[in-house]
Amino acid sequence: MPEDFGGWIVYILQNYGPSFAVGAGKTMLIAIVGTAIGCLIGFAVGIVQTIPMSRNDHILKKVILRAARFILGAYVEVFRGTPMMCQAMVIFYGAAMVFGINMSEWFAAFFIVSINTGAYMAETVRGGILSVDAGQTEGAMAIGMNHVQTMMNVILPQALRNIMPQIGNNLIINIKDTCVLSVIGIVELYYTTNGVAGALYRYFEAFAIAMVIYFILTFTCSKILRYIEGKMDGADSYDLATTDTLAHTSGLYNYPDKKGENEA
Known about the structure:
This is Amino acid ABC transporter permease. It is found in: Cell membrane. With about 260 residues, the chain is mainly alpha-helical. The protein has helices at about 5-50, 60-80, 85-100, 105-130, 135-140, 145-175, 190-200, 205-235, 260-264. The protein is elongated, with a radius of gyration of 26 Å.
């Protein structure tokens, strides 16, 4: 058996490398799917919370909207204010004991990560929508757009760019926080590492390997998301597309060359 730290690292990777790879794959699958579904939940909740309400609205609309906001607000506060490990225990075991619903471990994992992420994303989306200048909404209304058209075509595309960093942040958090799902039997990277460490009684070396894997996963995702953000930003400089021949845009108006003017 190895006698030094480096020797144990090599030994563990040679004998348990495939197990670490499978665990990392499961971690990424849960994190990506949970973040994607959570974003959809967050957008739905955030949009409902920002629906405008005026004095002229029908009383039924006001009642329904206020009730929906109360329920969604409670959902956001509960799932943001409690640890995901507790949520996993309550949902997985509580659903079976109270309601007789026996979830599979994988369904429970996706469900827990999704609704937890949705609670955080709801506030992010709400803030992203409110961060768009009010003049954008006024302009859309001025050309005849209703609220749904304004949100879909004007506000949400701008809000999405504003909240992209937080979406990436939630993905990175979920990659790390999937370790809490070991309490319901999900064999992801942390669970695998704990099993290897217990089998060999080499906790330091096993979890050092896990820490490096977690860093590689989060760092890679961070760089990919930064690249996507850059693509969403577009070019640093651009020309305004217009058919107005008086506008000073490329292809329609050419500023005279100063050197040519001097020679003339």
